[in-house]
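Supplementary Methods. Inverse-folding protocol.

Structures were first reduced to a discrete structure-token string of length 161. This string, shown here, constituted the complete conditioning input.
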């Protein structure tokens, strides 16, 4: 929505629209201004997961947000990741192994990601992970990382440029 300059809330109604003391023409003016500022995005957004339920939810949310035409959502495993694009950005929140208790599977996934993501100029990767040794498993030191919380789980948002 940010890339297409779609105003937050543009696709919903607000209770305040029914308040009699706010001139309805002001609402129309605000909606028209917001719609006029929308634009097409000059880049391709691709999303993938191997979990069909996740893909169904992603499609639903993209439609609800009014951006379904801007995102290509497909079923794919991380080991099949590839692109012929000269530049790109990958943003991901891979499974942690926290809830399901399979840390070893998460570590194997992190290793596969490090081996699969292209190591070339003009590609950046941003990965959210709580694993204290994520960089070791990924096989690269992040250029920057920031501590954040995903719910109650302490995580690091790793940036690789």
């Amino acid at each position: 929505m940010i890339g297409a300059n779609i105003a937050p809330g543009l696709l919903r109604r607000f209770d305040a629209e029914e308040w009699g003391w706010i001139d309805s023409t002001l609402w129309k003016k605000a909606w028209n201004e917001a719609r006029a500022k929308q634009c097409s995005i000059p880049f391709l957004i691709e999303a993938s997961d191997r979990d069909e339920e996740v893909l169904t939810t992603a499609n639903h949310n993209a439609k609800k947000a009014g951006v379904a035409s801007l995102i290509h959502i497909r079923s794919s495993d991380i080991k099949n990741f590839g692109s012929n694009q000269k530049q790109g950005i990958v943003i991901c929140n891979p499974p942690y192994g926290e809830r399901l208790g399979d840390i070893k599977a998460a570590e194997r996934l992190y290793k596969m990601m490090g081996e699969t993501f292209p190591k070339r100029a003009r590609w950046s990767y941003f990965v959210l992970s709580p694993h204290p040794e994520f960089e070791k498993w990924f096989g690269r030191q992040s250029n920057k990382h920031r501590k954040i919380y995903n719910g109650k789980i302490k995580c690091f948002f790793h940036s690789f440029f």
